[in-house]
């Protein structure tokens, strides 16, 4: 009888038991015969004793007995002696399956059985354990599941040869390093004179004056020390969106919503060249630092490279699917970087005039890009985040979150102070290395202006980096400088090494 039972699986035994039990309560005519409870229990006890009595104490497998030892054989499977009284309800276990008096099958193992089974699994690998074991730190990756893990998996230790590797490898959560202390910046001058929004600003290399362009279609040159107006240039027939002063020649370049790109000779204060080619408003421009090349970007979804002297269009950089809002040049590769309303940033090959890398991490329009003056990195501004990148391939570094507005402009100095100006008039100052936001500024608008006219369209440091200039929607230019009286004691860094969660992109 024992040999016959060993040939069949557990499922076969259970199925046969259920069928025989059913047949026992059905008469010849197919109708069930009513039995009282005592008769039912008595017949079931006799049935179980006759059918499974010889195999009640049979071990589950010899391998389990070898590995776990005889003392552990009863941890997950309970074997009971058949009692003398036949009327008592008894629970039987045959090859790991529980058979009760009313032939119910135990579907879920007990907690102790699950623990023993998990420890005894010979094919369990370290990768499976690491995947299911919860981390001992409070930090959890954003992609991790919120489902609670079984406590039994916490104590699994895998043995490989003579080495023991714990399934719980404590990983240190990423924390923000202590930021460098920067003195706060304070407003000390407001310059008025434009009759429309001030859309762009640039400081000349000698640090004696700066230039602004406005929606009143004029370009104005201001004395940097006193803030007084020195000169007004007229010639654009629409809003002036970009200005820049050359470091290689006495030229000023401007562009505007009238599709025009102009070169001004500052010795004669008049236009000497026009660069024709854009089909729509020109939003920005930049000069190459080492060669006579001008790069402009436009609402026509292209950027163009111009030879400054011959006015020839060297390349038309096509690829963006929406307006190109900002462009920057550098001497190293990649030499041209553009940001667009199509949410992408493109790094361009200047020689071939083709895209090297397209960065698609932003989810909204990219209106500002700034290059660090010392590090081989740059930052981009968008309503979703300010992101930092590493050249030459645009490797993502980190997010600077918190400036929840449309960011129009970015600038950074060599001390690592990053400034972001937004459409709602707020200005945030960040530590470049750590991304710590150490100051937030929201200056009052000029008297007589609407509160809605508090946007910041452009900002720039002067050549000494001791002054910060902003071009704003209340028709003014505001000048900020560092607070000389501030110290680390009077303005401490409210920073704690808290756990930070970085998004994956």
Q: What does this protein look like?
A:
The chain has 505 residues and is mainly beta. 12% of the residues lie in helices and 35% in strands. It contains six helices and 32 strands. The strands form nine sheets. A four-stranded antiparallel beta sheet has the order 5-32-31-30, with no helix packed on it. It has a four-stranded antiparallel beta sheet with strand order 6-7-8-9, with no helix packed on it. A four-stranded antiparallel beta sheet has the order 10-11-12-13, with no helix packed on it. A hairpin with a 2-residue loop joins β3 and β4. The longest helix has 16 residues. The two termini are 65 Å apart. The C terminus is likely disordered.
Name the poorly predicted regions. Answer: 5-11, 25-29, 61-107, 121-167, 499-505
Strand content: 25-35%
C-alpha-based Rg, rounded: 39 Å
Helix content: 10-25%
The profile of the biggest β sheet is: 4 strands, antiparallel
Q: What would the average pLDDT be, to the nearest integer?
A: 78
How do the strands of the widest beta sheet line up side by side? 5-32-31-30
Classification by helices and strands: mainly beta
Number of strands: 32
Shape: elongated
CA-CA gap between termini: 65 Å
Number of helices: 6
